[in-house]
Structures are given as C-alpha cells and as structure tokens.
C-alpha cells in the first residue's frame, strides 16, 4: 500500500494504492489515473543550472521541456554537470537533447550573451 496526495487539481485528495492498482480516496477518475502513473512510473520536471564560462554569469538555468521518469533525475543531473556553456544561448534553446532516450530535451530558461572581444 502506498499513500500519496493527488496533485491533479487543488482539492488534493489523499490517495491509497495497492500492488494490484486498486485506488481509494480519489473523488474522480483523474485521481485513479494519477495514482497508477505515480505508482508505476513517477514523472518529474527537472529544473537546475549548468556551468558557463561567462565571467559574470557562472550558471545558466535550465529545465526539461516535459516530465521525465523520476528514476532518471540523478543520471541526467550527472550528465548536465559535464556541460559548460561557452556561446550565446536564448530561452528555449536546447542544451541537451533526447536525455536518456526519453525524447525530452533540456532547454535554457534564461538568455546568456558573451561579449565579443
Ligand atoms: S482525485 Fe480528482 S478531485 Fe481529487 S485531487 Fe485528484 S483530480 Fe482532484
């Protein structure tokens, strides 16, 4: 038995799900779907930062453009730790594509501009 709070709507029903995917506590069908997805393969949006070589902006904020499996979060963070942005980036530019073969990209959530010397 696993307990969770449904986050699909503001009501926030307290759900319980067992190993046979029997769900209780939900006031509507969306809660059952949420509980089963959360039990089988929980997904999360990842928001973090990556290094840059910019002298005044050492970190660039990024996020996944869709939720990814929760179990992949740390391996994606590890991959992002190896990236150093050394060129201009605009909001929405892809920083890392198709992370862990999920068809999800990590995109910039901030602009960064390197001055020409
Ligand atoms: S079960 Fe339905 S009513 Fe309850 S929080 Fe989830 S979506 Fe909202």
Kindly summarize this structure in a few lines.
The protein is α+β, with helices and mostly antiparallel strands and 117 residues long. 17% of the residues lie in helices and 29% in strands.
Primary descriptors:
10 strands, 117 residues, five-stranded mixed β-sheet, binds iron/sulfur cluster, 2 helices, three-stranded antiparallel β-sheet, alpha+beta
Describe this structure in words.
A hairpin with a 6-residue loop joins strand 5 (47-52) and strand 6. The protein is built from two helices and ten strands. Helices cover 17% and strands 29% of the residues. The chain has helices at 29-40, 73-80; strands at 2-5, 14-17, 23-24, 43-44, 47-52, 59-64, 68-69, 84-85, 94-96, 106-108. The protein has a five-stranded mixed beta sheet, with no helix packed on it. Strands 1-2-3 form a three-stranded antiparallel beta sheet. By secondary structure, the chain is of the alpha+beta class. The structure holds iron/sulfur cluster (SF4). Iron/sulfur cluster is lined by residues 6, 8-9, 11-13, 26-28, 30-31.
Any chance you could write out the topology, listing elements then pairs?
Elements: E1 2-5, E2 14-17, E3 23-24, H1 29-40, E4 43-44, E5 47-52, E6 59-64, E7 68-69, H2 73-80, E8 84-85, E9 94-96, E10 106-108
The structure holds iron/sulfur cluster.
